[in-house]
Amino acid sequence: MIHLVNDSLQRDNFMHVTMDEVVSYCKGKEVLAIDTETTGLDYTIDRVILFQIGDEDKQFLIETRSHDIQELKSILENTTTVKVFHNAKFDVNFIRSSFNIQCENVYDTMLTEKVLTCGTGKSVSLLNTLERNLNVQMDKTQQSSFVGHTGDFTNPQLIYAAKDVEYLIALKNKQKENIDLYKLSKTVDLENSAVLAFADIEYNGLDLDIESWLELANNALDVADGCKEDLDDNILNNNKLSKFVPKHIQGDLFADVATLRKVNVKWTSPKQVLDVFQQLIPKLDNVNGKDILKYADRFDIITTYIKYKEQMKIYTSYGEKFMQNLKDDGKVHTSFNQILDTGRVSSSRPNMQQIPADNSFRNCFTAPKGWSYVSADYSSQELNVIAFGSKDPVWIEALNKGEDLHSVCAELVYDEQWYDAADEDCAYYVNNAKQKCNCKEHKKLRTHVKTINFGLAYGMGANKLSDTLGISSDDAKKLINTYFEAFPAIKGFLDRLGTFGTTFGYIKTFPPYNRRRWFTTWFPKMFNSRENSQEFSSIERASKNTPIQGASADMTKKALILMREYIKMNDAPVKLVMTVHDQIDTICKNEYIEEWTKDMKHLMEIAANEIVTNGLLKAEVTVSKCWEK
Question: What is the reported pTM?
């Protein structure tokens, strides 16, 4: 039944109640459903105008333009009452920005549905989730009517708002059936706890040194312009490309002829660039990076073009266009997609995972005065996961002794070739320390094996290895075969994962979470036909890399949860501000750095030890005035 807290307009078809009655009903409830209606989608400038709380029996609608919800603060912030949301991150940040209330102990039906349907591609909107689980048809026509709304709410708006909380608890109960069936309670608990940490990161945001950032972007444009001039010169000095040099320079009658381009090629046009390159490489089909990279050593014009594209991408992605991501508070607030098919996380608006790999742009994100960045990341996280899963003795020994794993692997793969390639002062052989060296030939061999080592976590095959290293497919196949001959335990581990996924139609991550990824193209005995070989290979590849990536994601999420709990419990002057894969970034008041550095490392390793239980996976912590990789 709908109960309305609203003094501005009395409505006969709704029961009118006071805030005291709302609090009285909600206090002591084990589970409450919550939703908000807001003036827009940006919690930094928009506000909650209608707050809904209740259960299947009673739904309370509170008009927040005339009523404060501070009386519900103790309920929303306690850790005993479960607060059920659909897309909790959105609502908790709006509740925090509008009322300075930080919700605790939340259950997100949307995230839970993502866990249950991972890999299927099914929509997890409230509309589709209710229909799929409860056979409830939701009318969402009023969904966008609250944006920019002024004046009294209409009856359809109020009914819609009540429906958004009426079914949430029933949905939670229905989801529990599949949670129990597939033994996913730990994964669901992990995600529902982690969502508050991701919400904190989004809410806290990052300070940006705009002047330094734009200077970098403009420098990239200057480099790109230089590359463009070099590309033009390449054409002017190559007789094979003379067709791209017009016989007569046409332009403005009053223009300075020296400033006019003498080449008819638009370097931002892949079609025109392909036409140029086909004069040199007739069989070339496109100018994609991986397709032309193999020719870079033979043609300077291709090397220059690749550099031109890279610099133009930096400028177009991180120039003035990037400033659109700044909110009114002058900060960058990214948005996380908490669960991909592998269990990993992505971010958007902006995508913080695609900030250039060097530290130039990252360093433009700075700590406030009196604060510093304290960041922690796992040392070779995915390699440790592979070593733990495969129980390969060479990998485990190398990681345990602090040896350079890629060099150790290269020695076993290349054998005498590795030995013969050593310089006299090779650091790898000094005192048998097996550390990374600077030998020219060792570097090449190590890079080949390093590519395979990291490629294991992404299901890399011979074709991808061939493209990455610029070698033939046959040589790539031979290298992979030689690699697995040297490391049969790793091959066996990956083969077992691939067989499991192709046999059962799903794959699981490591205990204790056992996250599941379903394969929708799978059905029993489908792989007896050659027609299905592509689907088979896709499922086999995903089955090999999902447990590795998923386990890595699970421990990072656990570390985020532990850190958030630590900050709350100790009222620590620390804020979560970013996470990218195996790295977690915080800002910390300078006087607390020593204590937080020690505790942050400890919390990271507690999370790691839940999954990689041999204790080999360690964390490293760094302190700086800006964001660093």
Answer: 0.92
